[in-house]
């Protein structure tokens, strides 16, 4: 077990305060810091603080995959750490995006290899052959858009905005369910129409929708106030972007600290604001759908998107509570995530914290401080600090003297 120092990623949508404050560095940071990567992604591995100085977690793994991952994880995933942990701090909305299924990722990667698009190219969609299911746990209040809302509810929203220019599109969404059109068909038709609309049309429609949102918010703050505010905020940043219209079709999700959503393949989503812990399969495969100056490959996005409607409730990850440990339930094999809350009766004495298999663990303390005992050593993690526990160094025991929260990520088998 060693202390793990994350790799900080600076993107324009990040925060100059949240990650710097969390990791105990000077505030404000010189650049907006968006993500803290705790993993072994070749693009930006985290660093182990060993007795001989810092070592890349990827290099340490590469020297002994089976010993570090354990026999079970190594047999299943081979020579790779299958998950990546990120602390994400969004001061501004991210791009609208979706991630491919495994089949789509393999097919897309091979296609782009055949076409000779360099892996580092900004127009490359598939940088590896993995799907990228992701779990987002709010560390502070967190706002997101995710998954297509059931069509009937979206029709209510579009009608509430009272924008006559939207009428033909409402018809597209509501086109005679008796005629056999499913919600998914209507959503696909409408989203495709908007995302492929000529710019002059968008330059009329987006401002009309923003005007509708302003009118809606100035009358009575109705049931769609959060949706209307979000559309206004996105429209101010990206005037004329089809993604502003697409945002009208997605569930507006507000998470309190500790609450989580799970995003499976094809789910169109964006994070709007907040600080969260994101755990995902170790992949960088992103198809963008607007709200970004970056490359948007519309045909590829349409191939990957899942238009089956879902609700905010369905996106939320259920939890299973086991003593002080709350385990987030997801279907992902690559990762399992839990939160250990040590307070009250759990303070002041040592607690066994076995994982349910011998896979490797990444620990991240988000409140208080905790002493972690592993087979070969002991270390104390304060808020913002993390540790790598290789397979052969578990199970761990924990001791906290003050209220403490510790996240654990491991494999999901
Ligand atoms: Zn995502």
TrEMBL record:
Keyword check for Metal-binding: yes
Binding residue positions for Zn(2+): 97, 99, 134, 269
Cofactor section: Zn(2+)
All copies of domain Phosphomannose isomerase type I catalytic, residue ranges: 4-150
UniProt cofactor note: Binds 1 zinc ion per subunit.
Positions of the catalytic residues: 288
GO molecular function, a single term: zinc ion binding
E.C. code: 5.3.1.8
Stored Pfam families: PMI_typeI_cat (PF20511)
One GO cellular component, as annotated: cytosol
Record keywords: Isomerase, Metal-binding, Zinc
Catalytically driven reaction(s): D-mannose 6-phosphate = D-fructose 6-phosphate
A GO BP entry: GDP-mannose biosynthetic process
Membrane-spanning intervals of the chain: none
Stretches of the chain forming a coiled coil according to its record: none
Signal peptide positions (record): none
Gene3D superfamilies reported in the protein's UniProt record: Jelly Rolls, Phosphomannose Isomerase, domain 2
Family designation: Belongs to the mannose-6-phosphate isomerase type 1 family.
NCBIfam families named among the record's database cross-references: manA
Name of the featured protein: mannose-6-phosphate isomerase
Source species: Mycolicibacter sinensis (strain JDM601) (Mycobacterium sinense)
